[in-house]
Amino acid sequence: MNDCNDNNKKILQSYIPIADMIVATFGSNCEVVIHDLHNVQSSLIYIKGTVTGRELGAPTTEVILKKLRRHGDDVTDMLGFTTRTKDGKLLKTSTSFIRNPEGKVIGFLGINFDVTAFSMVNQIISEFSVTHDVNQIDHAINESYAKNIEEVFEHLIENTLLEIGVPIGKMTREEKIYFVHQLDDKGAFLIQGSVDRITEVLGVSKQTIYNYLEESRSDS
């Protein structure tokens, strides 16, 4: 197992020169990250640039967790999509998943390019144009780019509660099952200790969470 982990680390480290080259080419608006998915709670092993303000040891993002939960090793690269950070930045983002020789996803390389200033200029120009296309901005994916796994978990809980629209204290059993289902779909259960956290949030036993999870997966 250790030899496997060592080989995976060597594969991931081989992408560092690529990360450095990209940032050197595109400058201070660009950030490149390398994540080791052996530990999603603290997966960021290399970062060049300061666009998202994260540091080494930051967790995997919610968008990636959701993709991994849905597709596993069959996950495909996410290229040229737009995200919006908590502080309002618009980022043009691409993610390429890194696999070992056996085809298992072991990590990913991500490029985050801050296009906030470009979008503001584009908005000004568009006001003087006959047509105006804001689809890219309107469809930006909200992404927290959390600095620790607690932030990721809180973001997942808050967003799921907003989607359901019912306070936890007033949830029916069916709504609690749906709550667990939505968290599962977002990849929350890929996070170590997630069952304990969700147990505290819902105020039920761990076995009840497992029952909800089993029931929600059997219905999907």
Automatic annotation (TrEMBL):
Q: Which residues form the Transcriptional regulator DauR-like HTH domain?
A: 154-213
Q: Signal peptide span per the entry?
A: none
Q: Where is the YheO-like domain?
A: 12-123
Q: Which domain of life is it from?
A: Bacteria
User: What InterPro entries has UniProt attached to this entry?
Assistant: DauR-like, DauR-like_HTH, YheO
Q: Which protein are we looking at?
A: Transcriptional regulator
Q: Which species is this UniProt entry from?
A: Bacillus aerolatus
